[in-house]
């Protein structure tokens, strides 16, 4: 295959197949370092704190949160949307980039997909927890019953249930399909007689035969085809939780595309945050190169600019509509009591990513890391701004109110971060963090050795 | 023929046919009743008692048996009672009077327990109106902090023993000729007066002293000077075209607020072709409920009232040919006011809330010059409830201090809490040989008494009342006494040595005195009819003579008038929730947002914005007043500069858990001056003393932000064009189009209309709604977190100058939108639309996503943040700081309305249970529902008749007429939510201002 000589190699360090296997499986086969133990301890403590806070919420009621008669959703739904958004990068990388034949995706798709799954799991915590009567959550499913009860298909919350659960299932399947050849590699490499059968089972008897490969490839393509529309649909539907309402600041048609680009934007930021640390810590810098980081930064500029345009369009439409409630809602966002949240959002999401127009900056690993953190924060604030500042001053000034999270809410959010990182730490010790089979697939065409 | 099966020969022989002496086969009624009798109930049980007890058992068992709790067995009816159908409410006419407020009422009794109070429409005083305190009084019946048994020095005892001891004490005092004092509040019950007279005759050494918590002594003395009688006249505010009130909060707390509200709104309603509207001018310092409704409100310091009245007197006297006096004129230009008053001669009314005899005398002379007596003021039908002369109490306390009093008997008074020199009283009572108190609720005074003879609560007792001369009402028990209490009247009877039951005494009294006036054919019929109606009003004529007032002693008053700098003045007032503090232990009242400040669970020092700015005070800062009283500051727009208003009735020290340590007791700030207690003081020293007080305020934003939420117009504009202020409604109506299928309401289509011109904001609807719909009380902390649960709220906005704003109010409940934003977002369809246009909640289905709450533009949905009601199945997670889930208090719950559990949304249901009940009644009677038959709790309680409910499908119904009125609009109608609630624009009578 012809490869442009201008392109820099995707895999550096003159790797061959066995070197790839050796590099990628090393963290699984060797004993974990102190850093790993340190990391998983901290994150599991956070997870436990979160679980306690969740228990308290379910036992005592939502009153333990700072939400009130005016602001029915606070940190809970903010976190839901944030986590779901983060999940988007994984699917985008594995599905859409696969369809577009972007080879650089092979180095990062595995961990990005894992991140998707863990993020969706964390996201799922919030819609469940924010329900006043968690034990009755099953009411939301349209199951046949003798009481003649049926769900309300007009409600975006119901669409959410289907969208998120579908998304989770497809992502999980896709991730696992990609894992099968690598699990088989692990099965072959592992010596421990207790763990070997587990990998053996999980590999579904993968032999690496041509027929296996052929089926694996078609399966991946089909799943990619299924997952690609999901990238667009899930966050569109999440955005409809807001867009279909009457609340000024929520009731806008721009929401679906704006949310989707925001989601990919924040997802890539999270992938960068994780990968920049992981490539260093796990010594896989030759697989996840500065080139990969640059590619991701380019996507960040694209999506970040869409988000910026959406913000400005919203402001314009609020003014242009002549609707007093709409105008006030946006004025209040920028200059009301939560002005700081709005300006954090604006700075982090609109201004900082624009710096990636400079090649030097987007190839600077430390700078990218800092910006990725900024974007993570900014995108969290975007959801906070949308939810809280729209609700806290809506139509009737008599009901206006303020919202402040309680410790319980903070603990639950910290808890989901804890769960996320705990799962991620476990993931890097159990499964190959880079898709070995796929990297090997491009080694001949895009590896350093081949090219030069 | 049906075959007869038998088990044994014996059975075969038994004849199952009814026998002649059937009664013998029935169980012994008394024996059964005695089963439930414990020793504390000493009277013989009757079948009626049995049924009452029975009702208790059944309902408490039913309550206890709900959800996951174990089933406790109840005994089914052995004898089916006549007239009483389980589950069917009974209404008993009665009277609410607590020494201050009066209402003729109906008590709703379900299965033996009173659960709701409704206004009695037959009464010519209250006309079916109630106020917040009347509505809330039902909860006090189940107050845990009541005195539960007679006690001697704090130890439980029996009635026989306590009677013996008290009679011994009384006799020995009588023998020695020592002074004994009977201290009561103003007594309006003729039978009680009769009983007390007998008692006083039996013990001639007893002196009767009347002590009113909120005194009207100044008015009584002024009227004595004017008319030779210590009376408080009654008023016809409805006949007044111009009302000038000097700090008289007649819509909230002054004299007879329910009656006055009825009268006040009568000529402010612009319906049925009425085009005239009264004009109301209020002079006051703190923003009162009444002042906030005035067409014109003028801020004055309380001490300035006299000079203003003097000036007004001179201006009117000059034009009516009366003597004028030389005095300093006041700073306010009153010429146009005087002109207006003269223009409305005989159709105006000047009232003053002052307790200064001179002020009241000036008011009398002004009214007399204007010819208002006989037209808007009636001295021949005086009120009876305020009888206390402050001097008497002062003398009594002095005598107690000097040890001249050897015995005290106290009935319906709590001077240790509410007497300004309470320290003196406390020291005094310790010097009194024996003290008897007859309290209902745990209170400060009774704690210091030797003998506590707890009185029945009014819902447990027989009584009668003559609130206004010649207008009688009866009070009958709606439940058997819950505790071992005894009617105070019976205590007096026992001490007099009479064994009679008080109800017999009332009957005798009525037979002697009322029956002859009735023209009825037999006493029994008369009695039953009176008891049924609750009232007896033999003389309803309103024509009254026009007395002439001698303008004597005015020169003395005018020589006292001078304008001096009075520094910072403190004004003390009663607020509409806890009133004078008697019912402070009522969680409903404590959680009632003040109609002006919207603050719950607190009293505060209201200061004007300018005053606050000068002293760099902020809402929530603490100030000390005269170095003694530390109060939180509230910046109150409309507060007169250099004045501070503080509500009385807070800071109870001995009460139930609810009132304890809520707010600060400022009764000690009341001072005695000019012979009467004055509810203001001058030259006060105010210093900042801290900050960080957290108020529980239900509304924190006061501006409408230019939104068309409350639409108003002036009377002039309205008369020129009835759609004034409401032009938008037509515009919105024009655009009323939809692509979707429109809702069909084939049967009824319920709607509600609120007349913003009638609503004065008294908040009776709020309490009525809470009582009817089992709305939980959440406590101060939760209200501060905006977790209040009220289904109906009264929004209050200011407009204009921050120092002198105009106030508008709007009751907001669920708008029952036909295009309800809440309905389509609920994922489980827990909230949906009925085919009668009601937005209904299926609590059982609700999973608590709160999406409906977010999407409600009116924010009327309420979420059960915690287990406020003990209705959920998780143990030990109940949040009930105010003890509303005590078994006893739960007896107040309305069994027709579900008690909501933690985690579900609730909201106004248009009182669906009442709709269903009336529909069923109509169906059983095989007739159509009448318009006005269904009255939701809020509309029922409203003393202003501001809320109308009915069927929009019936073109003749009142609601349909309201909806087609040019003043009608819907809240946020531009959102196309199509609410079933309409509002009629507010009209202000500002037209005569130039």
Which range does the strand content of chain A fall in?
under 5%
Tell me the helix content of chain B: 25-40%
> CATH architecture of the largest domain in chain B, please?
2-Layer Sandwich
Please state the structural category of chain B.
Answer: alpha/beta
Q: Alpha-carbon distance between the termini of chain B?
A: 95 Å
Placed side by side, the strands forming the largest sheet of chain B appear as: 5-4-16-15-14-6-7
End-to-end separation of chain A in angstroms reads 15 Å
Number of helical elements of chain B: 33
Instruction: Characterize the main sheet of chain A.
Output: none
Q: Total strand count of chain A, please?
A: 0
Low-confidence stretches of chain B: 15-37, 65-69
Determine the CATH topology of the largest domain in chain B: Alpha-Beta Plaits
Description:
The complex is a heterodimer of chains A (452) and B (994). Chain A is an all-alpha fold and 452 residues long. Chain A has a domain at 28-138 and 229-418. Chain A contains 16 helices and no strands. Chain A is globular. Chain B is 29% helix and 19% strand. In chain B, strand 2 and strand 3 (113-119) form a beta hairpin. Chain B has 994 residues and is an alpha/beta fold. Chain B folds into 4 domains: 151-215 and 388-536, Rossmann fold; 217-383, Dimethylsulfoxide Reductase, domain 2; 566-697, Beta Barrel (Barwin-like endoglucanases), CATH 2.40.40; 712-988, Alpha-Beta Plaits (2-Layer Sandwich), CATH 3.30.70.20. Chain B is globular, with a radius of gyration of 29 Å. At the A-B interface, helix 5 and helix 10 of A face strand 33, helix 29, helix 30 and strand 37 of B.
């Amino acid at each position: 295959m012809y490869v442009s000589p201008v392109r820099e190699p995707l895999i550096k360090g003159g790797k061959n197949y066995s070197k790839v296997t050796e590099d990628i499986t090393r963290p699984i086969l060797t004993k974990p370092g102190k850093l790993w133990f340190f990391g998983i301890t901290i994150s599991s403590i956070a997870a436990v704190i979160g679980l306690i806070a969740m228990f308290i919420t379910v036992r005592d009621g939502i009153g333990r949160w700072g939400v009130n008669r005016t602001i029915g959703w606070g940190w809970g739904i903010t976190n839901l949307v944030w986590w779901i958004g983060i999940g988007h990068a994984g699917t985008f990388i594995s599905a859409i980039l696969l369809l577009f034949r972007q080879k650089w995706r092979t180095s990062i798709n595995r961990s990005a997909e894992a991140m998707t799954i863990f993020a969706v799991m964390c996201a799922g915590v919030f819609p469940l927890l924010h329900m006043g009567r968690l034990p009755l959550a099953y009411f939301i499913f349209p199951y046949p019953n003798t009481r003649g009860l049926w769900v309300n298909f007009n409600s975006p919350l119901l669409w959410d249930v289907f969208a998120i659960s579908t998304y989770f299932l497809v992502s999980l399947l896709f991730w696992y399909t990609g894992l099968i050849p690598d699990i088989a590699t692990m099965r072959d490499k592992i010596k421990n007689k207790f763990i070997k059968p587990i990998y053996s089972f999980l590999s579904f008897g993968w032999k690496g035969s041509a027929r296996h490969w052929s089926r694996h490839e078609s399966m991946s393509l089909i799943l990619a085809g299924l997952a690609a529309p999901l990238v667009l649909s899930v966050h569109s539907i999440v955005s409809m939780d807001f867009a279909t309402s009457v609340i000024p600041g929520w009731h806008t048609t721009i929401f679906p595309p704006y949310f989707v680009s925001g989601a990919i934007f924040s997802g890539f930021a999270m992938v960068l945050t994780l990968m920049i640390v992981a490539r260093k810590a796990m010594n896989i810098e030759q697989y996840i190169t500065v080139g990969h980081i640059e590619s991701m930064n380019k996507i960040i500029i694209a999506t970040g600019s869409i988000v910026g345009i959406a913000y400005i369009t919203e402001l314009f439409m609020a003014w242009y509509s002549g609707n007093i409630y709409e105008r006030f809602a946006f004025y209040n966002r920028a200059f009301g009591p939560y002005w700081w949240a709005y300006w954090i959002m604006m700075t982090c999401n609109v201004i900082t990513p624009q710096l990636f127009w400079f090649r030097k900056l987007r190839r600077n690993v430390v700078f990218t890391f800092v910006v990725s953190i900024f974007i993570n924060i900014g995108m969290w604030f975007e959801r906070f701004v949308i939810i809280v500042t729209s609700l806290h001053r809506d139509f009737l000034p008599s009901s206006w109110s303020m919202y402040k999270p309680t410790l319980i809410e903070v603990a639950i959010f910290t808890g989901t971060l804890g769960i996320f990182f705990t799962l991620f730490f476990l993931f890097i010790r159990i499964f190959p963090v880079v898709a070995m089979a796929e990297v090997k697939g491009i080694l001949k065409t895009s590896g350093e050795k081949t090219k030069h | 023929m049906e075959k007869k099966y038998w088990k044994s020969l014996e059975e075969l022989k038994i004849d199952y046919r009814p026998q002649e002496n059937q009664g013998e086969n029935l169980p012994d009624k008394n024996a059964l009743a005695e089963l439930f009798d414990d020793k504390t109930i000493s009277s013989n049980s009757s079948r009626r008692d049995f049924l009452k007890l029975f009702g208790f058992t059944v309902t408490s068992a039913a309550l206890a048996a709900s959800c996951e709790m174990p089933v406790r067995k109840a005994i089914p009816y052995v004898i089916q009672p006549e007239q009483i159908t389980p589950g069917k409410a009974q209404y008993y006419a009665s009277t609410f009077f607590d020494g201050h407020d009066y209402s003729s009422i109906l008590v709703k009794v379900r299965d033996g327990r009173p659960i709701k109070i409704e206004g009695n429409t037959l009464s010519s005083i209250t006309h079916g109106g109630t106020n917040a305190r009347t509505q809330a009084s039902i909860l006090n019946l189940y107050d845990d902090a009541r005195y539960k048994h007679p006690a001697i020095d704090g130890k439980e005892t029996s009635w026989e023993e306590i009677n013996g001891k008290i009679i011994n004490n009384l006799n020995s005092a009588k023998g020695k000729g020592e002074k004994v004092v009977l201290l009561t509040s103003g007594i309006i019950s003729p039978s009680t007066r009769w009983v007390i007279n007998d008692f006083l005759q039996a013990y001639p050494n007893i002196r009767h002293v009347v002590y009113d918590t909120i005194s009207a002594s100044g008015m009584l003395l002024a009227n004595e000077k004017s008319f030779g009688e210590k009376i408080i006249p009654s008023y016809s505010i409805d006949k007044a075209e111009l009302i000038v009130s000097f700090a008289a909060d007649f819509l909230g707390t002054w004299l007879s607020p329910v009656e006055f509200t009825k009268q006040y709104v009568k000529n402010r309603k612009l319906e049925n072709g009425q085009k005239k509207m009264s004009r109301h001018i209020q002079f006051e310092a703190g923003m009162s409920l009444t002042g906030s409704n005035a067409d014109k409100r003028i801020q004055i310091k309380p001490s300035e009232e006299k000079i203003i009245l003097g000036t007004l007197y001179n201006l009117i006297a000059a034009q009516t040919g009366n003597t004028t006096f030389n005095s300093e004129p006041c700073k306010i230009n009153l010429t146009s006011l005087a002109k207006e008053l003269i223009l409305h001669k005989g159709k105006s009314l000047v009232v003053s809330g002052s307790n200064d005899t001179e002020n009241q005398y000036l008011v009398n002379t002004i009214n007399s010059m204007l010819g208002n007596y006989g037209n808007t003021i009636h001295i021949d039908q005086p009120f009876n409830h305020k009888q206390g002369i402050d001097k008497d109490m002062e003398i009594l306390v002095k005598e107690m201090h000097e040890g001249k009093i050897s015995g005290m008997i106290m009935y319906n008074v709590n001077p240790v809490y509410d007497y300004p020199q309470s320290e003196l009283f406390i020291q005094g009572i310790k010097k009194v040989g024996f003290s008897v108190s007859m309290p209902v609720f745990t209170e400060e005074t009774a704690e210091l008494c030797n003998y506590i003879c707890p009185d029945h609560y009014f819902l447990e007792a027989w009584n009668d009342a003559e609130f206004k001369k010649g207008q009688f009402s009866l009070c009958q028990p709606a439940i058997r006494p819950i505790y071992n209490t005894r009617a105070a009247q019976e205590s007096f009877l026992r001490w007099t040595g009479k064994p009679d039951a008080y109800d017999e005494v009332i009957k005798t009294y009525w037979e002697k005195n009322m029956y002859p006036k009735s023209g009825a054919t037999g006493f029994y019929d008369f009695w039953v009819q009176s008891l049924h109606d609750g009232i007896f009003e033999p003389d309803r004529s309103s024509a009254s003579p026009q007395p002439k007032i001698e303008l004597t002693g005015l020169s003395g008053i005018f020589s006292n008038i001078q304008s001096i700098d009075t520094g910072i003045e403190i004004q003390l007032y009663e607020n509409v929730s806890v009133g004078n503090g008697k019912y402070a232990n009522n969680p409903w009242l404590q959680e009632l947002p003040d109609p002006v400040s919207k603050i719950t669970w607190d009293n505060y020092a209201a200061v004007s914005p300018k005053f606050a700015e000068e002293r760099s005070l902020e809402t929530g800062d603490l100030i000390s007043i005269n170095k003694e009283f530390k109060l939180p500051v509230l910046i109150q727009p409309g507060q007169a500069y250099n004045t501070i208003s503080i509500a009385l009735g807070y800071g109870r020290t001995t009460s139930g858990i609810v009132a304890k340590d809520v707010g600060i007791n400022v009764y000690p700030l009341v001072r005695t001056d000019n012979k009467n207690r004055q509810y203001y003081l001058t030259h006060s020293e105010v210093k900042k003393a801290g900050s960080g007080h957290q108020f529980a305020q239900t509304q924190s934003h006061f501006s409408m932000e230019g939104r068309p939420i409350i639409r108003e117009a002036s009377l002039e504009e309205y008369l020129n064009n009835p759609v004034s202020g409401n032009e938008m409604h037509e515009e919105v109506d024009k655009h009323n189009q939809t692509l979707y299928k429109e809702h069909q309401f084939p049967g009824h289509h319920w709607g509600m209309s609120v007349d913003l011109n009638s609503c004065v904001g008294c908040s009776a609807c709020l309490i009525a709604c809470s009582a009817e719909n089992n709305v939980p009380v959440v406590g101060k902390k939760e209200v501060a977190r905006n977790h209040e649960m009220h289904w109906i709220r009264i929004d209050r906005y200011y407009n204009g100058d921050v120092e002198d704003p105009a106030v508008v109010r709007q009751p907001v409940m669920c708008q029952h939108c036909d295009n309800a934003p809440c309905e389509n977002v609920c994922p489980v369809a827990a909230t949906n639309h009925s085919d009668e246009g009601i937005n209904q909640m299926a609590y059982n289905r609700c999973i608590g996503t709160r999406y409906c709450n977010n999407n409600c533009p009116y924010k009327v949905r309420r979420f059960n943040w915690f287990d406020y009601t003990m209705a959920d199945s998780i143990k030990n997670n109940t949040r009930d700081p105010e003890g509303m889930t005590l078994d006893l208090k739960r007896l107040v719950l309305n069994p027709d309305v579900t008690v909501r559990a933690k985690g579900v949304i609730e909201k106004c249901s248009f009182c669906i249970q009442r709709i269903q009940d009336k529909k069923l009644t109509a169906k059983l009677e095989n007739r159509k529902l009448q318009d006005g038959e269904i009255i939701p709790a809020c509309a029922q309680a409203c003393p202003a008749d501001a809320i109308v409910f009915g069927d929009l499908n019936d073109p003749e119904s009142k609601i349909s007429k309201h909806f087609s009125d040019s003043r009608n609009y819907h809240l946020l109608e531009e959102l196309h939510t199509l609410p079933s609630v309409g509002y009629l624009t507010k009209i202000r009578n500002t037209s005569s201002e130039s």
